[in-house]
Amino acid sequence: MTAQHLGPDPTTAGRSSRDWWRQAVVYQVYPRSFADSDGDGIGDLPGVTSRLGHLADLGVDAVWLSPFYPSELADGGYDVADYRDVDPRLGTLDDFDAMVTEAHRLGLKVMVDIVPNHSSHQHVWFQEALRAGPGSAARERYVFREGKGAHGAEPPTDWVSCFGGPAWTRLPDGWWYLHLFAPQQPDFNWDNPEVRAEFRKTLRFWSDRGVDGFRVDVAHGLAKDLAAPLRDIGTVESYQPDDLPEDGSHPFWDRDEVHEIFRDWRTVFDEYDPPRIAVAEAWVRNSRRTAYATPQELGQAFNFDFLRASLHAGELRSSIDTALADARAAGATATWVLSNHDVIRHASRHGLPDGCDEEAWLLSDGQQPRVDREFGLRRALAATLLMLALPGSAYVYQGEELGLPEVADLPREALQDPVWTRSRGRSKGRDGCRVPLPWRRGGSSYGFGSGGSWLPQPPGWGELSVEAQQGDPAAPLELYRAALRLRRGLLADEALEWIGGPEAVAGGLLHFRRSGGWECLTNLSDAARPMPEGELLVSSAPLSGDRLPPWTTAWVRTAG
Length: 560
Prior knowledge:
The chain is of the alpha/beta class.
């Protein structure tokens, strides 16, 4: 892959401090896998601080940290035992403050994950609820119910956990508690005013420490219909957003009442100058996602359609048009993402045949079918350069700037994602995209730390490291740097104008113009396409004279 950067250095586009997020590039850090400062094999906050210079050099606007709170890691940190502290294995509050200070010194905003649907079963509230017993005020903070059948031996409903198996666990006193994820993650009862007050306090706690924004985990799950009798829904092992009812009537996903919660959160965000921002992780219908992103609520919502779309020009254009229209309707900006801590890395995903059963591929340790590594990376970089040209915010997952593949062949005994055990081996889980980063060519963990890594890194990982790619014009790292540097100078308003009609899309070409006289062309076909006249700014692969090669994106400054 070749990053071609021609012409003068761009300058940073002027942006209001209140609107920094509207066209920001946000870099997601999974702290346990980013950098380890003390050699225990687990990434930590001092490690993050030590590597913030990499993010500033990369050219991103903000760093978003996945959970770093005290946790027994029943779900990779998303089982939070204390919402206002740092896991001792990852550091201290002083370490967090030092990280925020350094990030702000480098011009980086800081976002953190907040996990409001459920806590850890180790949380002081849940432990109090267990001691207090049925009917207590402490149990009203969670969802406890008596079971069905003789002696209450059957779960209260047929609801299924997202990690497999029943969504209810029975206690020795005969009562059941709800957990839409792992049993170690009991769901909060958001009808309870104490729960609402506690999270307002948590939002202020981190905002007061300099946090600029929040990523809201499972934003669509907080409000639940808990009126007796609870409703069965028919056992469903998994769901797609379009499976949910359009009227918000599902008993626990995407209920209308959830928006009252986020309108309340907005009053907290607006206490600060500039206001704190948030982005919803909401796996819901497109038509229902808009409400989460309004200025009266969170401000943004993740657009996962773009991530899930195949690299067919028609499907991608439809996804882009829908996302932009939905964002305008919400008074927000669109969000774009290609990889994160929950999905197969897109450098591997786009090297698999269309329609491939990704779960079966993982279970085969990445052998059936074999990934076309070179082709997958070429397509991934073309998709990335397209994403970075679109109006709105781009969310980049750690390591994708290195072109890292999914580590599909992790041995079974090394797997730590609860999906693996809860599914009884039917799903390998998400560990393959969470393998610690390589920073150097050699060493016990390729520069991640001095004492190995909590997930095994594959042989040859060092040749994908920052050290190995530094200064190599053909490396993904240098493409990202060039594109992000250019992007800052090119961005003006949030307008996009498509060029070419249905015949161009049918031929695999996506071509649009942005304000300021630059265009983006993406060739998603096996044949070269003509390039417009103008100055080439950057391309995801070398051009063939005046032709745009297959599976390549280019940015061009045109005379018009």
